[in-house]
Amino acid sequence: MSNDTDQPQGAPGGGTGQRLVAERRRKLAELRAGGFTFPNRRRRTALAGQIHSTYEAHGAEALEAEGIEVAVGGRIMARRVMGKTSFVKLQDRSGQVQVLLQLGALADAAYQETKGWDLGDIAWARGQLFRTRTGELTVRAAEVALLVKSLRPLPEKFHGLTDQETRYRQRYLDLIMNEDSREVFRRRSRIVQFLRSYLDALDFLEVETPMMQAIAGGAMARPFVTHHNALDRQLYLRIAPELYLKRLVVGGFERVYELNRNFRNEGISTQHNPEFTMLELYMAYADYHTLMDMLEQLLRSLAEGVLGSATLTYQGRSYDFGAPFRRASIEDLVIEHNPALERAQLRDLAVLRAHCATLGVPVHDAWGAGKLLTEIFEKTAEHRLLAPTFVTGFPAEVSPLARRSDADPFLTDRFELYIHGREIANGFSELNDAEDQAERFQAQLSQKAAGDEEAMAYDADYVAALEYGLPPTAGLGIGVDRLVMLLTDSASIRDVLLFPHLREAGD
């Protein structure tokens, strides 16, 4: 900020904050008594960012000669009063622009009114552009208006809004005070737009599927339960759109995708929010190898398109999306990170149970070798997968919707993509054998009866759809929030959600 506007403002708190609010309410009462009605007829002709980009190269003489007039509006973020001259900085969606308020250029009554303006108020000004003695591009106001009186003081401007809890609970304050936060959500929007454009160009059709479902299916997770009064039936908030999207493939839409909100009644952490955004797509006449190749190219193009480079930095580490992604099976990785195990033991129930006990992994009686192997992978290998890595060959026991491997029916044609030790995407060749699917649903029911709250229900209509015939199909789900975390260097999922779920204040 230039010296023209550098004005300290103390951070209100406790009694001081209450007094400042009371003072602002008094000012508003006086304005109302004078006929103030929160005016809505003032229009802007330029944004702050447009002014700077268009006229930054103009010198003082050029600006004076051209007589460029603009009308600007925004929130007052800085203010300095110097007798018959004042400077304010107005912030709009594109940035900040400085405005000179000067007795003489403004009528006396108008100028005196501006002395009652406070930080956080929303104001409008019209006037010509010029440069101050320090060279700052500024609007010399010939007409001004207060549009909105802010009743609450903004946080102290030199330190901004740094308390994380307040930033999440009062996101509007975070966005007012922190340009970095605004940029995160602008970039999130660009990422989502890129994903849509990329798939549209490949002839995918964007669709919408129900968010309230009679059966919680498509993933292994605990659902949220609700009740529909008119139908008098229990419904579940969507944990995944998968089974509905594959019904559409059965119906002849061979390439479909949905950018969807999902809801899972699970823990809250830096990587988990009860509701989250996923991109889920299905592609007929493709397999999981097709999708691994496609996903690798998609992420490379996304980084280049959004960041301008295939190389990105996340939490101090550099990741090169331009290099080929590693591909390794879950069994290879378990052997790599568990020297006590031999490959011949990876399906030995007794050995796997004993190893889980050594690792401190709780085990349920109903779990088979596939589930135990996956638990060991998650405990010992997952967090070590920093560079982009496709993990393949997940057991059928933990992949109830994936096609079994022709070479080894214990495994499925499935992958998960890990970056920085986190799962970013999950994809597989879809199970299109209706009888096999029915058997796997039955096995899930057995697991649910044994106490597994994340096991799937039996979806008879989905099995019926498969009986009409699902062409060879591959499906992919991408965690959009985690992807945005990577591309914005955000440590917590709360940093990339405008309104994250939080515990009750004080808990």
Describe the structure.
With 507 residues, the chain is of the alpha+beta class. The chain has two domains: 144 residues, Nucleic acid-binding proteins (OB fold (Dihydrolipoamide Acetyltransferase, E2P), Beta Barrel), CATH 2.40.50.140; 263 residues, Bira Bifunctional Protein, Domain 2 (BirA Bifunctional Protein, domain 2), CATH 3.30.930. Helix content is 34%, strand content 24%. The protein is built from 15 helices and 18 strands. The chain has an eight-stranded mixed sheet with strand order 6-10-11-18-17-16-15-14, sandwiched between helices. A five-stranded mixed β-barrel has the order 1-2-3-5-4. Strands 7-9-8 form a three-stranded antiparallel sheet, with no helix packed on it. A hairpin with a 2-residue loop joins strand 12 and strand 13. Helix 10 packs across helix 12 and helix 13 packs antiparallel against helix 14. The radius of gyration is 29 Å and the shape is elongated. The N terminus is likely disordered.
